[in-house]
Amino acid sequence: MALRALRREVMAAHGWSLRALYRTLDEPGDNPLRTAQARLDTAVRAAYGMPAKADTLAFLLKSNLACAAKEKAGEKIIAPGLPLPPDKHAAFITDDGVAVATPQIRRDRSDLMNPFVSGSKREFIRRVRDKWLPAYCNDAKHKYSVEGFSLGNDTLGEQDAHDFLRALDCNVASIGKRQRLRMARGMTSETLFWEGLKSVQPRPLSLWLESVITVAVGARLHLDYGWPVECLGMQSKDYAFDLMAFRAPDFENEDIAVEVKKTAREVDELLRNLAKCCAGEHEPSCENGERKNAHRKWIALQERQPRLFWAVGPSPTSRVFEVVVAREASIRLQEVSPAALRFEGETASLPIEKHEGS
């Protein structure tokens, strides 16, 4: 009961689905849900007489075999369910079971009044609800219901929301047709919203967190580190990097290559795999497995040799590396201070190319 009560409270407070709630267990650190689940697990183990370190599947198999043997021998066993007469069951039955429900937009807009949501994030959510989401759903190519939108596993932080708004308000990035995000340079625009399965109605919609963080990082490069807007772009020519900073007149090879991930754990995993590639530890999974993404970035870093590689996740996750060219044109990543990101040079003067999808 305590676990279900906690789940209802957190889901109601944040407008999360059960799936979004349990995704928070993927994040490191203290989590009330993890604590409550562990207490329930301990209570269940105690009720079944299961030792704390026993293997769950092995214990269940042993218990089932023992029950089967007793039943075969004609001995009485306890059947599944409450070991009580039916007229005693009512006190143990609740009405808070998980049910399939149609996603509903929170009409009370309590996300905007949540005391734990401060200024910039509240303004970000307001613009999503009042401006960007309706425009996206009402586009002739979409015609979606806004009822399908959910903030989902709302991991967008205050700083990322603040910097995203700075990017738009200072023309570092813009929102164009179909609510696609664009910067001055780059191969393509990026979507602000993620679309779920067509078979589900109304179609599920949520924020594309990596795009939001990418634009936020663009704001930091321009407003905090002095990079000219015309030197910044989203998506490299080979789609290896999410964001690039170019030094004029070379707009083919990045001076800073940026990769954005939606969780700190994904950033750590990327850097571990990149370190293996830099050390020459390649394996078949580099070509079409879990390390393929890191291997593709390693190839791009080695070919174009940008000055810096910046790995970014939800704020404050941020690690900056100097791309050091070693012998035989191989590279290694040397972590450096974020101060290395500061722009030094003249503003670019080349015209900005226009791409489809802007």
Mind sketching the topology for me?
Blueprint: H1 2-14, H2 18-23, H3 32-47, H4 56-72, H5 110-113, H6 119-138, H7 158-169, E1 174-175, E2 180-182, E3 185-186, E4 190-191, E5 193-195, E6 205-207, H8 209-224, E7 232-234, E8 243-245, E9 256-260, H9 264-278, H10 285-288, H11 292-304, E10 308-312, E11 318-325, E12 331-336
Helix pairs in contact: 1-3, 6-7, 7-8, 9-11
Tell me the overall shape: globular
The fraction of residues assigned to DSSP E strands is 5-15%
Please outline the major beta sheet: 7 strands, mixed
Question: Structural class of the helices, strands and pairings?
Answer: alpha+beta
Could you estimate the helical fraction of the residues in percent? 25-40%
Low-confidence stretches are 100-117, 348-358
Radius of gyration, Cα only, in angstroms?
26 Å
The main sheet orders its strands as 3-7-8-9-10-11-12
**SSE pattern:** HHHHHHHEEEEEEHEEEHHHEEE
Number of distinct beta strands: 12
* C-alpha end-to-end distance: 51 Å
Quaternary structure of the protein? single chain
